[in-house]
Give the backbone structure.
Amino acid sequence: MRKAWFVLILVAVVITAATPASAAGPWSWPVTGPVINGFDPPASPFGSGHRGIDIAAAAGTPVLAPAPGTITFAGPVAGHLFVTIDHGGGVESTYSWVLALAVKKGDVVAAGALVARSGAGHPGDLVPSVHMGVKLHDVYVDPLTYLGPMSVSGFIHLAPLLAA
């Protein structure tokens, strides 16, 4: 039992340490789930890489605005739905491979507002997820630097105590 508590505390410390706050944050997470694919910046503006993070979430999960902003894009790109939120100060967040949109261009959203429903993730992914990107002055940066610590309460499931 003591080992389980140690592991739980260790996980909370690691999650907190891995998500430093930024000057514009910390933001709330758009969905609750583990990051299954991290940020891998390209060597050049048009080079290969992964310009965001993929957060595992069942298809249809509400995708929430992590901070207040204005919707600058909500629609299809090559047959897939995307959303972009302008948070001011040259910071934008993007959400890709979503199943349904809850906003349109020009909408002003508060932190925590529903912007979309999650989809299957990148084409060919085996685990459904939401791709979240963050751009600072049109350059992709690691979204984890904007996100606050994730609550571990969604991952912890305690078994009920049985009566003696």
Remarks:
- The first strand starts at residue 35 and ends at 37.
- The two ends are 18 Å apart (CA to CA).
- Confidence is low (pLDDT under 50) at residues 1-23.
